Write the C-alpha cells for this entry.
Amino acid sequence: MLPAMVAEQPAVEVTDVDVVRSGNKLLSNISWTIQAHERWVLFGPNGCGKTTLLQVVSSYLFPTRGRVTVLGTTLGESDVRELRKRIGYVGPTPAHLVREGYDCLEIVVTGKHASFVDTRWHTYEQEDFDRAVQLIESLGAGSFVHRTFDTMSEGEKKRILIARALMAEPELLLLDEPNAGLDLGARERLVRSLDQLGRDAGIPMVLVTHHVDDIPASFTHIIMLNGGEVIASGPIRETLTSDAVSETFGMALDVSFQDGRFRATAPSG
C-alpha cells in the first residue's frame, strides 16, 4: 500500500525546468508530472538529456530555472537528504561502489541503510535477511543469494542492484539504463524481471532507455526527449508512434507493437 502522502498527490512535478551547465543548455522548458500509480519510460537518443533529467528528479542536480517537487519536497526549499532516503536509484555510480567480494544477500540487505559497506556496520534482524531473499527471488535471481558479486554476469548484477534499491522500501524507483552493456539473453531476462516488478511493486517508477524493445509491458507512460526538449509525452500506446520516434531520433523509423513489446526499424527500400 502506498504511503498516504504519495497517494494524495503526484509523485513528481517538474515545471518549466531548464538546466544550463558551462554555457550549454542541457534541458529546456521541461514540464513533467508523474502520478503515484504510473510507471514511466524516459526515452531518447544518447546525449538528449535523459540522465540529466533523471538527476534532477533524484535531487542530485538542481535546475537552473523552474520548479521541481518530488514526493512532496520542493528542491531548493528544504533539506533533500531525507528525501534521498525515500528514492531507490539504480545506475552506473552505485554499481561501482559495490565491494565485489561480498555475497549477494549481504549486498542486498545493506540497501536498508543505503550503505555499500558490509553488514558489520549496521544492525540487521532476521526479517531483514528474509526480505532480502524475497526481493532477490522476486527478480528471478534466487539462485544467486549466496554467490559473490564478482562471479556474476552484468545482467545478474543489475538484478541484484535493483533488489538492493528496493530493500529500503522506496517511494520512487529510478532506473538509469539498467540494460546497458547486456547481451541479448541478459536483456530479455531483465526486461521480464522489470515487467513483473512494474506489476508488483506498487510504487512509481522511471526507466531510462534508448531502445523501444527494452520497454516492459507493465510500464504505462513515456516522455521522449531530443536536444534537451520534450518531443512527446503521455500514455505509451498513444505516444510511442512512428512519427514521434522518427522525430526523436532524426530519422525515419517504423514502430510496431506485438506480444506486449515494441519494435522500431528503418523502412525498407
